[in-house]
Amino acid sequence: MFLCNGNHHSLKWWSFEVLILLSGLLPNPKLETSVLSICLTISSLHFVIPFGLGVGASTRVSNELGSGNPQKALVAVRVAMFLAVVETVVVSTVTFLCRGVLGKAYSNDEQVVDYVAAIAPFLCLSFITDSLQAVISGKSSN
């Protein structure tokens, strides 16, 4: 019952918040909390792009299927997946190439900036799954 009516999105965001709070229990809580907050912010900002693409693709596919055009719906799915792959490659490449300065957008502490640079490759890998999942899931309706 709790996951009905869109509450799963709320649960997801609360899990991020709990994760940030739990990072305060690590050996260097100020550093870990700062880096985790920055990485989750970057990941959340990135997720908006493929999620918007997925919502648009979902609407387009629904309209084509409602019009009785399954072939056009298939083309819309393929185009959306292609755009998701292109977006992932571009964003992951830019993020990876800018990993040394990425942390400076959020902090002036060199230790935090260096830690963000070290975690950026893993962030780029998560962009791949986030993008494809967001486009494939589209807009979930109740």
From TrEMBL:
Signal peptide extent: none
Transmembrane feature ranges: 35-55, 75-95, 115-136
Keywords: Membrane, Transmembrane, Transmembrane helix
InterPro entries the UniProt entry points to: MATE_fam
GO CC annotations, alphabetized: membrane
A GO molecular-function descriptor: xenobiotic transmembrane transporter activity
Name of a matching Pfam family: MatE
Similarity annotation: Belongs to the multi antimicrobial extrusion (MATE) (TC 2.A.66.1) family.
Protein name as catalogued: Uncharacterized protein
